[in-house]
Design brief:
Elements: H1 2-14, E1 16-30, E2 36-48, E3 53-63, E4 70-83, E5 86-93, E6 127-136, E7 139-146, E8 167-168, E9 173-174, E10 182-191, E11 196-207, E12 212-217, E13 220-225, E14 227-239, E15 242-253, E16 262-276, E17 279-292, E18 310-318, E19 326-334, E20 339-351, E21 354-365, E22 378-388
Parallel strand pairs: 8-13, 9-13
Antiparallel strand pairs: 1-2, 1-22, 2-3, 3-4, 4-5, 5-6, 6-7, 7-10, 10-11, 11-14, 12-13, 14-15, 15-16, 16-17, 17-18, 18-19, 19-20, 20-21, 21-22
């Protein structure tokens, strides 16, 4: 018995364990589709010892109405190692590249999870790859590779999440092999000498996360992955309580004639006001532009193309109460077309581990030639509770 107890204590001294579990239930109502009840959750687990650290994340989604919105997914599983001024990792991982609040044109490492939410920029699939980072004080240089291109599922049929008029075949078509690697270099520069700023320069060669939608048969569509050279610039500058943000992306399409080269520009300002009637208020103003090098080629095949000559205005109110209540309001307005998205979110803690949340999303599109127009004029309302431990 003493030997077993000693062994357990010995293992415990080698391994540190952390976890975070979330479980939520949402009621979702739609103006033009059948309502649904949704159960969702995740389990994040981290093990570490003197040699390496292992992180894993399991996610699930279950819709009472739409069978496409049902899955159990091991979305992250990777091993990392830190020593001296280096950090290395390998496995399935989610990365976040972005500065702006509304949409990130530079967030191109992972594919979006459209089954979870078409308009949630944080809904993403993990990607299988490896990276190595060298730190120079606060600056860093990362070399990375992505090994594999996944099939991506979309909701189909008469659902509020389907962007296609006919059936969708999730089998991926590619300009090269599925295992053809995608390489990137990420240089991160932090400065506080004259003004606080952080800048990332990312160069990528390989498959783009934007994919074309092509006919796979007479009655169905599928995705087509093509290879590119990309140059990205992400930067923010902090002055007083104001943050100035920039995300720029240029894409050189290598081997796919139907797709034009394209440039994406985005600029934003974030301003905070503290203790305004006991609340903290943050205002956001952002502008997005999408430029095709050849305007005659294929368009409107990806959600990134919605953000073309669009203005985003938002406000976050933190009430600074014991319930950690927070209200977010936002509007995305197309400056060329009669299209806009209105969104309101409210979160409030009801018990120590329970958060009540509500969301209202309204889409207005009076055009016929854009991706957003496929969702028509419609509304979505969500009310739910999430338990975290």
């Amino acid at each position: 018995m003493k030997i077993i107890l000693f062994f357990i204590l010995f293992i415990s001294s080698l391994v540190a364990y952390e976890h975070k579990f979330e479980l939520g239930v949402d009621g979702m109502g739609y103006s033009k589709y059948a309502n649904e009840m949704v159960a969702n959750g995740s389990a994040q687990i981290s093990f570490s010892n003197d040699l390496f650290q292992t992180d894993a994340k399991l996610e699930f989604l279950y819709s009472s109405e739409y069978k496409e919105r049902r899955y159990l997914l091991l979305n992250e599983l990777y091993v990392s190692k830190e020593f001296d001024d280096y950090r290395m990792s390998i496995g399935k991982k989610i990365k976040y590249w972005g500065e702006l609040e509304g949409y990130n044109v530079a967030d191109i490492y992972n594919q979006k999870n459209y089954l979870q939410d078409f308009f949630d920029k944080n809904a993403k699939y993990g990607a299988i790859g490896a990276d190595a980072t060298r730190y120079f004080d606060e600056n860093s240089l990362t070399l990375g590779v992505k090994f594999y291109e996944d099939d991506i599922a979309y909701p189909e049929g008469l659902t509020p999440y389907s962007p296609f008029p006919i059936s969708y075949d999730k089998r991926l078509e590619l300009s090269n092999k599925r295992y053809t690697p995608t390489y990137y270099l990420n240089l991160n520069i932090v400065s506080d000498e004259y003004i606080d700023s952080e800048t990332k320069v990312i160069l990528l060669h390989g498959y783009d996360t934007k994919r074309d939608i092509i006919p796979s048969s007479l009655y169905s569509l599928s995705q087509y992955a093509y290879r590119v050279n990309k140059a990205l610039l992400l930067s923010h500058i902090i002055y007083a309580d104001t943050i100035f943000k920039t995300e720029l992306s240029y894409t050189d399409v290598i081997d796919y004639t139907p797709m034009s080269d394209y440039t994406q520009l985005s600029f934003g300002v974030e301003k905070s006001f503290y203790e305004v009637v006991k609340a903290d208020i943050t205002l956001y103003a952002e502008y997005y532009r999408y430029i095709y090098a050849d305007d005659r080629k294929v368009k409107n095949v990806d959600i990134s193309e919605i953000y073309d000559n669009d203005f985003f205005l938002a406000m976050r109110i933190n009430f600074n109460d014991v319930k950690s209540s927070e209200l977010k309001l936002g509007v995305l307005q197309d400056l060329k077309k009669d299209e806009r998205i209105l969104k309101a979110e409210l979160n409030s803690r009801v018990f120590d581990s329970f958060v009540l949340h509500g969301e209202y999303l309204h889409i207005i599109s009076d055009t016929t030639d854009t991706l957003l127009s496929r969702f028509d004029n419609s509304s979505r309302f969500t009310l739910g509770v999430k338990y975290t431990y």
